[in-house]
Amino acid sequence: MPSLSDCQHILRSVFGYDQFRGEQAAIVEHVCQGGDALVLMPTGGGKSLCYQIPAIARAQAGLGVCLVVSPLIALMHDQVGALHEAGVSAAFLNSTLSHEEAHQIEQALLRGELTLLYAAPERVNNSRFLALLDALAAQGRLGLFAIDEAHCVSQWGHDFRPEYRALTLLHERYPQVPRLALTATADALTREDIVERLQLQDARQFVSSFDRPNIRYTIVEKQTPLQQLLRFVREHEGDSGIVYCQSRRKVESVAEALVEAGYAALPYHAGLDSSVRQHHQDRFLREEGLIMVATIAFGMGIDKPDVRFVAHLDMPKNIEGYYQETGRAGRDGLPAQAWMVYGLADVVQQRRMIDESPASDEFKRVQRGKLDALLGLAEASDCRRVRLLAYFGEESHACGNCDNCLQPPATWDATEAARMLLSTIYRIAQHDGRSFGAGHLMDVVRGKANDKTALYGHDQLSTWGVGQQYSEAQLRSVLRQLLAMGAVAVRGGDFNTLELNDASRPVLRGEVPVLLREPSHPAAARGQRRPARLGAVVKAPVALDSGGLLRYSALKAWRAQVARDHNLPAYVIFHDATLAAIAQRQPQSLGDLEGISGMGSQKLQAYGEAVLHVLEELAQAQ
Ligand code: ADP
Ligand code: ZN
């Protein structure tokens, strides 16, 4: 069995990285030894290496090939290309291949020439494919199953794919082969579902911190969304970014507006022809500075490291979706922004979509709870990151890198209003032995008489009309906040009635202050919120002097040409950070290039001379 030090050697020589990050070391060691694992790591955390390194180590030890199951057919070509660049033997089998190409790959597989094989989940239902696996298994050359995007197996996840349910077959048919399931979706419900659906009860779970410290979160109220977006992207001149919208029509119109404003922007949604979609995706991956305007159909598995911003013009369905989408920014660890506008219409729309869906009551209840949690995040006046991480069960401190930390919003003290609402819930429960919905509750607090208040005699309660000074909008935002704080519980079923719980008591007693964001005003929003502290996002990966910048751009131009020749995205050849490190070091020899992060031995051999040549030519021209 390969050891951790074998893995460390592979990390250095194949990928050119010094050290494992976070849980990577523990994961690769566990998997190399044949253990099953469930890996939860945020987007950009480095999941690929968690199976690629054990795959290489196990293949080197004669234990056979790693099958990577992934729903991302459109990206397999680039993923495999990246492995080839690093000198790893890999291939994919999916519907884009001709019969002849697929046949060749099958033969290579049977000859034991492959270290990794990527395949789409539907293959597992294909008898020809299973016969292939049978043949490998019979020779003891089926080394590892890696199930990427494992949340696709769960109906609670946001990318449910029925084909994933069939993956238990792999385990049933080849119980001796270790399995590694990976996902960036980490809420408890989805996690439990993955374990159950994929029969991973005995797998070790590796849960990483979900923090993405380089991403700055900003959530603003929706006023004139397109104008707000244009102001936001102005800070990102020349950067790659993604703008998410809910509908296809909106995607089209926003992309047009950006183009009109002089930005390179492309639309992407499920209504476009698949060849157009693929073309737009390829351009986004291969060109610099493109803005992709998209529905959520875009983005899963996109591993472009230098996406500098993700903007939401409409609110996602839940925090998992928000986190996954925003996580596509800044995979390279450099500063990036997640920016969202949201408004009441979004909330109403999302609610209606849930209410009107044909799903079961249980499903709807879960979805409503998730929506409320996202609302709580949007309404928060304290650190966004603390809230996000708390949602994933992680404790943290105010981050200093979100809008609320950088610019604490004006708040009003809603403690009294919250107490009035809660004590009304209490009195109604005492009076009627049951709970009521938010609308009725607010009517009682505001003393708004109607048939229902009369019918139940609620105009006789001691809290009748105690909060007449508040508008309904104010009380509603207090309720949203209480829901978000968990200080009031929603009883599911048809009516969503509100009840007290343990967390209500301290609020009721006035021990917990409830502070709410003041609604901001459109006029104020224009000039404001651009103080010096919210400086522009840094663009260069490292600080370079003018000579360094020249070398950096010469290397980038060279890389663009190589990437075109290989039909791969530029970052697959070298990341920006690697080029910047080269520019800074001013290498004179191949030896000087060794040890630069991202410079594995295959790349050094393939490109080392060319890199030195680029720098030499530049020096001579100066
Ligand atoms: P994920 O699949 O978890 O979203 P990736 O596997 O794409 O993330 O990794 C994100 C980025 O981090 C990639 O560009 C990868 O090359 C880089 N990376 C991963 N592990 C390491 C490491 N140990 N050292 C340096 N860079 C790493
Ligand atoms: Zn913060």
Would you mind describing this structure in some detail?
The protein is an alpha/beta fold and 622 residues long. It has four domains: 4-207, Rossmann fold (3-Layer(aba) Sandwich); 215-409, 3-Layer(aba) Sandwich (Rossmann fold); 412-517, Arc Repressor Mutant, subunit A; 540-621, HRDC domain (DNA polymerase, domain 1, Orthogonal Bundle), CATH 1.10.150. The chain has 27 helices and 17 strands. The protein has a seven-stranded parallel sheet, sandwiched between helices. Helix 23 crosses helix 25 (576-585). Residues 521-538 have low confidence and may be disordered. Bound molecules: adenosine-5'-diphosphate (ADP) and zinc ion (ZN).
Strand order of the largest sheet: 3-4-2-5-6-1-7
Shape: globular
- What is the distance, rounded to the nearest whole angstrom, between the alpha carbons of the first and last residues? 54 Å
CATH arch. level architecture of the largest domain: 3-Layer(aba) Sandwich
Residue-averaged pLDDT: 89
Q: What's the total count of β strands?
A: 17
Query: Count of helical segments?
Result: 27
Domain count: the total is 4
CATH domain class name of the largest domain: Alpha Beta
